[in-house]
Amino acid sequence: MIGFDNSWVRDLPGSFLRLAPDAAPAPVLVAWNDSLAADLGLDPAVKTHAAQWFSGAALPPGAEPIALAYAGHQFGGFSPQLGDGRAHLLGEFRDGQGRRWDIQLKGSGRTPFSRGGDGKAAVGPMLREYLISEAMAAMGIPTTRALAVVATGETIWRDAGPLPGAVLARVAASHIRVGSFQFFAARGETDKLAALLDYTIARHYPHLAPGDGIGLFDAVTRAQARLIAQWMGVGFVHGVMNTDNMALSGETIDYGPCAFMEGYALGTVFSSIDRQGRYAYGNQPLILGWNLARLAECLLPFFDTDEARAVEIANERLGAIAGIYRTEYLAVMAAKLGLAAPDPGLTDVLLALLPGQDWTGFFRALSEERRLPPGFEDWQARWRAQAPNLAAMRPVNPVVIPRNHLVEAALTSASAGDLAPFQTLLAEVQRPFAPAEGREGFALPAPEGFGDYVTFCGT
Ligand code: AMP
Ligand code: MG
């Protein structure tokens, strides 16, 4: 019924373990993404099996569940073996347009990669990934998508106490991470690295010839630079830009302690464990370069057979990343400002004035010719002189993003069994650019007294 075609298990032996997800004792479907299912052309009958198939209670025909091996730098420190510690890739299916998609369960039980973890996930964090990834998709930002969340009927234990367990079924262009390359590179398995390189090229960058490490590196650089520029444009803070959370497809992946910035501040951090601000809002472009440098290290043997020459090529590439990112960022900002061409001077002056202003609200106010806060008069005159296209700004500057206080309230209710606030908020973030009329409460920043927002990992 899903029509699986599992190329990973065929093509990349030695990069995964076969094992079944845990069987959920009492699965109940709590969220189902009808529009994604329709986009992908999934058989409508899949929904009738969703609680079973997307919780581990039963396997859909054709699924070959595996846990993927990968390595990664976590907050700068290298772990040669991370891997799917609470996820099972059921397999891949081809949609009506011939695109190949991974379907992965998250929170589906322990694997040999679990280390100390229980392999499980709670309803709140899985609905959080659902909500935020849907908001990103609706804003046109490349991302994995959530197909379903199934409550398992299990109780899981976290610092906060007992929580209802859940499994998320997500759809991704692939789960190839920088850490997937690091896994083989760290083990010196160059033949497997070559197979992964060719697999990645065939799956994501088929215009490249097999073995073209430089081509792949350049393509991933462009895709990731564009992605991070888009994050910056909407004030998204991923929170854990470890190399295992960076996808070669250029999709946003692994929503954990992520959140959206309200008042503009480069130092914005939400994650409780990011004490140094390594993954702060304003550091994301630097981490882009850092992570790409780790990818380049893995690809050196495919840059040139001469090692010194390979390093030279890598250094050229790494030196160019900041400029490539800057171009993408200025393009994002030009669109936000309704300008026909990027204007670095105008953008930089604005950014110098913006600290403390609600990022999302400011740009939308600009696009609707609403009154700006005091202090922006000179800048605004300079901007107006460029004849900005206001109509073009509105489909770029969201009215509604997942505001932290609303996300928190919706997830708290959902964990207590009331899904109505989650469904309402989901519907609003799925039409981010529609006018605020009739939904003003979803467009406002957190009320005074909500305080600093803190998010948690390992949930
Ligand atoms: P993340 O930061 O969520 O991307 O996860 C980093 C690593 O920790 C991955 O290898 C995950 O599979 C693993 N992990 C996270 N939470 C758990 C858990 N509850 N049980 C087992 N492994 C986990
Ligand atoms: Mg991860």
How would you summarize the topology of this molecule?
Blueprint: H1 7-11, E1 16-18, E2 28-32, H2 34-40, H3 46-53, E3 66-68, E4 72-74, E5 77-79, E6 87-94, E7 100-106, H4 123-138, E8 145-158, E9 161-172, H5 178-186, H6 190-204, H7 213-234, E10 236-237, E11 259-260, H8 284-303, H9 307-336, H10 344-353, H11 359-367, H12 377-384, H13 390-393, H14 404-415, H15 420-429
Antiparallel strand pairs: 1-3, 2-8, 4-5, 6-7, 7-9, 8-9, 10-11
Helix pairs in contact: 4-14, 4-15, 5-6, 5-8, 7-8, 7-9, 8-9, 14-15
Bound molecules: adenosine monophosphate and magnesium ion (MG).
Magnesium ion (MG) binds at residues 244-245, 254.
Written overview of the protein:
This protein has helices at residues 7-11, 34-40, 46-53, 123-138, 178-186, 190-204, 213-234, 284-303, 307-336, 344-353, 359-367, 377-384, 390-393, 404-415, 420-429; strands spanning 16-18, 28-32, 66-68, 72-74, 77-79, 87-94, 100-106, 145-158, 161-172, 236-237, 259-260. It has 459 residues and is an alpha+beta fold. It has a domain at 7-172. The strands form four sheets. It has a five-stranded antiparallel β-sheet. A two-stranded antiparallel ribbon has the order 1-3. Strands 4-5 form a two-stranded antiparallel ribbon. Strand 6 (87-94) and strand 7 form a beta hairpin. Helix 5 runs antiparallel to helix 6 (190-204) and helix 5 (178-186) crosses helix 8. The longest helix is centred in the last third of the chain and has 30 residues, at 307-336. The protein is globular and about 60 Å long. It starts with 6 loop residues before the first helix and ends in a 30-residue tail after the last helix. The protein binds adenosine monophosphate (AMP) and magnesium ion. The site of adenosine monophosphate has 17 residues, from loops.
